[in-house]
Amino acid sequence: MPKTEYRIYVIELRKKVFTENARFRAANPQFNGVLECLYVGMTSKTPKERLAQHKTGYRNKKGHNLSSSIVKKYGSYLRPSLYNHIDPIHSRADALKMEKILALELRRKGYAVWFN
């Protein structure tokens, strides 16, 4: 059986998220409004499939909501130029670490970023 591969992805969010969502704003005190607002995630699907799941409010078979309310409300489109350099990852734990590393790197560059 092939091993699960995880991919890191980035979704651009509408800038309204910064003014309308207090938790997002509090997580990004460094944001000066110049660059974009982003969501960084990891998935075993393709990034395109995962964006579609966020936008439709996907729930798993047990009824757990697996979509981000921030992406559902403010998500615009994928930003492959910000994640295509990251190869698929074979462990969920390593993918979660990489998600955080990329999110913090983008935040340092001046983006406003949300990640889990």
Your description of this structure?
It is a single chain. The chain is α+β, with helices and mostly antiparallel strands and 116 residues long. Helices cover 38% and strands 18% of the residues. It has 5 helices and 4 strands, in the order E-H-H-E-H-H-E-H-E. It has helices at 16-20, 22-27, 47-56, 69-74, 92-108; strands at residues 7-13, 37-43, 75-78, 112-114. A 4-stranded mixed β-sheet has the order 3-1-2-4, sandwiched between helices. The model has no long low-confidence stretch (mean pLDDT 93).
Summarize the structure.
Helix content is 38%, strand content 18%. The protein is an alpha+beta fold.
Cα distance, first to last residue?
29 Å
Radius of gyration: 14 Å
Secondary structure class reads alpha+beta
Segments where pLDDT lies below 50 for 5+ residues?
none
Average pLDDT figure: 93
So how many helices? 5
Number of DSSP strand runs: 4
Q: What's the SSE pattern?
A: EHHEHHEHE
Give the helix level as a range of percent.
25-40%
Largest sheet: 4 strands, mixed
Strand order of the largest sheet: 3-1-2-4
What proportion strand?
15-25%
Give the overall form: globular
How are the SSEs placed, and which strands pair?
Elements: E1 7-13, H1 16-20, H2 22-27, E2 37-43, H3 47-56, H4 69-74, E3 75-78, H5 92-108, E4 112-114
Parallel strand pairs: 2-4
Antiparallel strand pairs: 1-2, 1-3
